[in-house]
Specification:
Elements lengths: L2 E2 L2 E2 L15 H16 L14 H7 L13 H7 L7 E7 L2 E6 L2 H7 L4 H7 L4 H7 L4 H7 L4 H7 L4 H7 L13 H7 L8 E4 L4 E4 L1 H8 L12 E3 L2 E3 L17 H7 L13 H7 L8 E4 L4 E4 L1 H7 L33 H7 L10 H4 L16 E5 L10 E2 L2 E2 L7 E2 L12 E6 L5 E6 L2
Antiparallel strand pairs: 1-2, 3-4, 5-6, 7-8, 9-10, 11-16, 12-15, 13-14, 15-16
Length: about 450
């Protein structure tokens, strides 16, 4: 059936004329056209859909589900049923069930941070603390805190024996292990002329006479070299008996000790009350030898930490935020001197520029009719011939005759807000650079 723009027009010769016989051929053709038209899909331009299926009808009408219109979704329906409000965020509470929760301005400023370091800055965490939190191991944390490598090796020791080795105090190698006989010797009185002699049970001191008896010496041992009385003869005028001959090679006790390699204070240890106190200490696992102001005593690891003035952090493997308290770390010590971001910026001497976005510095929009630009925005004014001194204040407006030109004196376009000053012009004064200053 003939249609023009979707509108049906009957073919010529099909309309009846009074007192005229209706011809069968055109009439039948007309009936056939009507039949075909009734059976065909009515086009959109004639109020139909141009299709014989629901899917085709939606497509022809520009309502294709998934392309032109959103397919029904239970989650979207649940979200659509919510009442929106400022600082609210939808969240799922179950299958196709949604609710709103509060999302504050601060929360948004935190979750839009690009990385953990930026998020910590938003939370006001100082650069120094961020360095500690960023350390991968306890050793790295101790290094950041200025703990020496040696102190770290000591803190890292698993037991007292390892700690003693680190300190160079290995018992039996670096220091003398406790010994009952040494303790007995240390307890002896240092009486002039006495000797240390074993009595079969312990060590005792003996006078010269008693020591000679213990040595099995005869009376000649006490005779002068110039008048030695020997049964059966006499020995006179001899020199000191050399060490190689069983003597001391000396005429005095001090020289004799030196010749025999037992000089007190160089070859053997002179008696010392402090050493005696150390020798008397019990060798308890994990104890340290510490002076108490009067003598040497043994202290446990916990007591030694107190003596060293160490705090509770000394026994921790890791350091958390809860371990930090007290006054804000000063800028001079690597901190910010503040507990919040705003005060930290002030203490660090940061101006308002530090919190500005790009949109605060430059116009980022696309409207040709915009008249409000950020302070500092430069523009190029094309105004024929215009004369303005450098830094002179002048009016700037949109050129009413087109959508791309800024002018100062021509046309009746809208004036730009704020104060604008000249920053220089071309040699023919046709082009002028201006900048918003307020």
């Amino acid at each position: 059936m003939p249609r023009t723009g979707g509108v049906y027009s009957p073919p010529a010769g099909t309309k009846g004329v009074s007192n005229t016989t209706i011809q069968s051929v055109p009439y039948n053709a007309f009936v056939d056209d009507l039949t075909a038209d009734a059976n065909d899909a009515r086009p959109v331009t004639a109020g139909g859909t141009g299709a014989t299926t629901a899917s085709g009808a939606r497509t022809n009408l520009g309502l294709a589900i998934g392309s032109n219109v959103q397919a029904y979704d239970a989650d979207l329906a649940a979200i659509a049923a919510l009442t929106s409000a400022a600082d609210k965020l939808p969240y799922a509470t179950g299958a196709a069930t949604w609710n709103l929760t509060t999302l504050t301005t601060f929360g948004r400023s935190l979750i839009d941070d690009a990385d953990a370091s930026t998020a910590l800055s938003t939370l006001g965490v100082s650069t120094f603390v961020k360095t500690i939190l960023d350390d991968a191991t306890a050793g790295a944390v101790l290094t950041t805190l200025g703990i020496s490598a040696f102190a770290q090796t000591l803190l890292d020791d698993a037991d007292a024996a390892t700690a003693r080795a680190t300190l160079g105090l290995v018992i039996g190698t670096n220091v003398q292990a406790y010994d009952a006989e040494l303790a007995a010797i240390a307890a002896l009185a240092v009486t002039d002329g006495n000797f240390i002699v074993g009595n079969g049970t312990t060590w005792v001191v003996e006078s010269g006479a008693t020591a000679r008896t213990s040595l099995g010496l005869g009376s000649i041992a006490t005779q002068a070299s110039s008048a030695v009385a020997i049964t059966g003869g006499s020995v006179t005028g001899i020199t000191d008996l050399a060490v190689a001959d069983g003597g001391t090679g000396a005429s005095t006790a001090s020289a004799a000790r030196t010749n025999l390699g037992v000089a007190i204070g160089s070859d053997v240890q002179a008696y010392d009350v402090g050493l005696a106190a150390i020798a008397a200490l019990a060798v308890t696992d994990g104890n340290f030898i510490v002076g108490n102001g009067t003598t040497w005593v043994a202290e446990s690891g916990a007591t030694v930490r107190t003596s060293l003035g160490l705090g509770s952090i000394a026994v921790q493997n890791t350091i958390n935020n809860s371990d930090w308290s007290g006054t804000d770390l000063a800028v001079a010590n690597g901190g910010t001197g503040a507990s919040d971001a705003a005060t930290a910026r002030t203490n660090l001497g940061l101006g308002g520029l530090a919190v500005m976005d790009v949109s605060d510095l430059f116009y980022t929009g696309s409207s040709a009719a915009n008249t409000s630009f950020p302070v500092g925005q430069p523009l190029l004014v094309h105004d024929g011939t215009i004369t303005a001194d450098r830094n002179e204040s002048l009016a700037v407006k949109l050129f009413s005759s087109n959508s791309f030109q800024f002018v100062s004196t021509q046309g009746t376009g809208s004036a730009l807000s704020g104060t604008w000053r000249s920053r220089g012009a071309s040699s023919d004064h046709a082009l002028l650079v201006v900048q918003r200053t307020a």
